[in-house]
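Ticket #4471: complex job returned nothing on first submit. Input attached below:
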Amino acid sequence: MNILITVDELCFTGHVYRKLTASNGRCQVLAAALISAALCLSLTSINTLRPLHLTLGYLGADDDQQSLPLTPETQSAPFGLNWPGPPHNATLLSQWADFLSLDYTQHPFDTDRLAPHLTTNEEVIWEIQRLHMQVMTSLLGGRRHVMLLDFSTSENKGDPAITVGEVALLRRLNVTVVFYCSIFMCSDAKLKEAHKISRNFAPSSLMILLHGGGNLVGYPESDILRKKILNLFPDFQSVLLSQSIWIRKDHEKHLNMCRELYSHRENLTIFLRDRQSLGLAQEHFPGTKLMLMPDMAFGLGRVPRTMPPTVDIVWIKRADDESSRYKVPEMPTNLSVQVEDWWKWTTNKGRTPMESSFLIAFNGLSFLQRGRVVITDRLHGHILSVLLGIPHVLIDNPPYFKLSSFRRTWTAGLSNTVLVTTGKEALEQAQQLLQRYESSLPSIMTYWKANY
Amino acid sequence: MNILITVDELCFTGHVYRKLTASNGRCQVLAAALISAALCLSLTSINTLRPLHLTLGYLGADDDQQSLPLTPETQSAPFGLNWPGPPHNATLLSQWADFLSLDYTQHPFDTDRLAPHLTTNEEVIWEIQRLHMQVMTSLLGGRRHVMLLDFSTSENKGDPAITVGEVALLRRLNVTVVFYCSIFMCSDAKLKEAHKISRNFAPSSLMILLHGGGNLVGYPESDILRKKILNLFPDFQSVLLSQSIWIRKDHEKHLNMCRELYSHRENLTIFLRDRQSLGLAQEHFPGTKLMLMPDMAFGLGRVPRTMPPTVDIVWIKRADDESSRYKVPEMPTNLSVQVEDWWKWTTNKGRTPMESSFLIAFNGLSFLQRGRVVITDRLHGHILSVLLGIPHVLIDNPPYFKLSSFRRTWTAGLSNTVLVTTGKEALEQAQQLLQRYESSLPSIMTYWKANY
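Support reply: We reran it on our side without changes. The output follows.
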């Protein structure tokens, strides 16, 4: 079994809220004193991980006498700092002990063996965050610096949520970002600047990270930018974070460019976020390291509902090329349903593109919380609903099948989530979810009858 | 001691999330069976209230076998459904037992005896919600129907937060809203409609509620609308919910109109939300029932931070007539500070004005969460920060003194909240708060150095 805890992480475990960039001498001394005990504890059995975490948390908190605690109720962690612990189910953990201790970089296509068997949102989030942490720690191989290129401030909500997940993971890995650019800011001039910065680092200390998403092959402009970036940093290890592949009809020419770009890239690892995309990558990108790895937005962790719902069903209906053009059925009069895409659910701008990403992701969470349950034809309508614990229905999108491939690979075990293919089925299933979870779903608080 | 628990409330206690309008026969039977035991328990001592609540919650949940629970982690209550229980401090509760069992409608100026002695956010919220529930139950006197008039969808965030608090309180009181209108929708035609609806009700079954806020006397258009409303429903008991009074220089003529409008109104009760406003009301509005009652936005309850902060300090600086025109000092280079009013932090529209109010209040919460700590010259920057548990500095606004009067009356005991009068002091105090709560404040997650 790999022991991945570093001194920094021990300190960090002690203070989820400690300012991440701050160093703390006393904490490091304490951590050094504790580390052998911690190693023993974590070796005894996998399910000691949670008590270990709690114990260190307590000791760490005591260590900092000059700083006052807020009351416990005020300490629920914001997203990105919310890391579910392993399941309390000892049988499950011992059953899967071998799998849990694998080095997945040596078993890159076996990462999804446990996830689809997990039945609660917390377990799925734990497993996916565990994979992210374990694999990235392994790939970083001791590097403490990265560049994060091509992230997104799109109002599609999904890409910014992925950005937040990536940033949260990097913070958790205690890695320094020495350069970043959002997709529209990765100009040639900025990339030149990035290249200049990279000269301060040896390949053994800097890694190039490319933003995940659903734009591999399917959105040529993204591949064209990645081509520039990959050719700019040939000597550095690069990771293209979790992506879906969409091969559109009549895009043979672009597919050929992608074949050339992504094949036989010795220093590149590509994460594919579902088995269908992995299959396509294996077919078209030979000679490059591929890994089956879940979507990065899970880095947000569990998010509590903050706002009471205002309708029974929020229905995300996308209107772009990825939609399967299903029909929305007539609604029963006893249901309040809000059908819209979240593109137009606009967000206030942050001071930097990265802050904007955080605000857009948060705004996506607010969009969904209006519904007691959710229907979605967007993948991140699914993923953010899993994070929020909102029961929901996914409508698949043939011929891309982005949603069903993802669900089959990672979230198939969640019983509060249903996959369908038509609008009619979606409505029926959403009504069943409303019934099944009636007693535990928050009620609609706004008054509707007097509609003034 | 008054026992205010009804059968409906017992059922509701069992399911914070039960759809509030739904009836449940089995629950009512169970509640009837439990009610005598509950009465005994709640009489034994005040601090049995919390265990009682928990016990009923558990029994209630078991009662509903056909409806599946979500996992516990997904059940944190959204705002408006988040009601802190009484403090665990038995000494405090027994010390204040006499005060806690008062009928405040008989002691309308004594409501603030406990609140300023409470030291945690949870305690203050509990006490204020308790006053709202107790007094409104008493004033409703068995009425189950209300009209809620003149509420707000203003981007000032405070008024919508008050609206949400009012709606949450009405839901908790299990009262039906038979008519509502937001300020811009309370046209003569709509009010005529409201008047028509009121004919279906006897004065003993319908109450008229006027939205709270900070616009009594200070904002003539609000008084003019209230004049219309009060003259339209002379036979019904009305409550003007918690307000501040601001008497502007050279507004003698409008003050005279207000004197005439609000004095000797037999069927009106006015809630004043601070002692200064109460004093002004006593001076200018003789012959009308006045009560010292805290701001309605506390109906939101405790709200967890959802988003990690992106700056050290968010500073709300208003630019309207209520500002004291203080100067913002130069910022130290090692601090990230965002200075702006939240007026321009715009919100997506809901399908109705009431839904818009909820969304704007939520958006106000998101504005504040960007800061590790907050500086505010707006009263609801203070109140929402108390609800979020964010340490903060209030800058007073002479000659109105809306903030200091409110703080002195209700929140003076909170040590994570500081009152100052200048921008320079505000910055110093905010820096001290950052230091004092360093270990328990969430860290900034966004990377700033690479600003692209």
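Chain A has two domains: 90-300, 311-437. Closing as resolved unless it happens again.
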